[in-house]
Amino acid sequence: MKEYDFNFFDYFKPPLKNKVIGLAFNYKSLVGKENKSQEPLIFLKSSTSLIFNNEEIIYNNFFKKVWIEAELCIIIGKEGKNIKSKDAKEHILGYTCGNDVTAENILNRDWHLARSKASDTFAPIGPKIINDIDTSNLRIQSFINGKKTQDSTTNDRIFNDFECVELVSKFFKLIPGDIIFTGTPAGATDAIVKPGDEVTIEIEKIGKITNSIKS
Prior knowledge:
15 strands; globular
């Protein structure tokens, strides 16, 4: 197993053209048994949404409700388009913890999720990139001020790592430094945060990332 220090992410910061791609509804516990055969939805987060361990998540006063979402993130290491799941492993540099911070959307009007998902500081990742690890059944949890708000395993995902890469690469050419958030388990919309809170995402064998919420 290889472990990269998170200074490695200096390479991926803007103005390089790496993408932050999110998958929604990729956990059976979230969508329910009747919908587990549906493929996940895809959305984009902005490059300025990226922050790292111990940095601050900015809670702007125009948001009425903000929550955190624990996610396993895939870091792409090799360029590819229309990648088959059987070949996806060779395109993956490694894995890290991600927090898909989300604000309540403008329901019935704003369905593209840009404001709710891609605002500045809304994609904390870290603290390290872990390579050569089996991620098929890892415990994934979120905490607010030390209180557990999500607790599941990556085995509950509908699409595994390689299927996620195949799905995303149908629509976007993947390049080194691209980041794929692979979805969150049930409980996220109850993991509501406010300024002053400290939030942690922890994934077994990957690590944990902690950030504070600031207005």
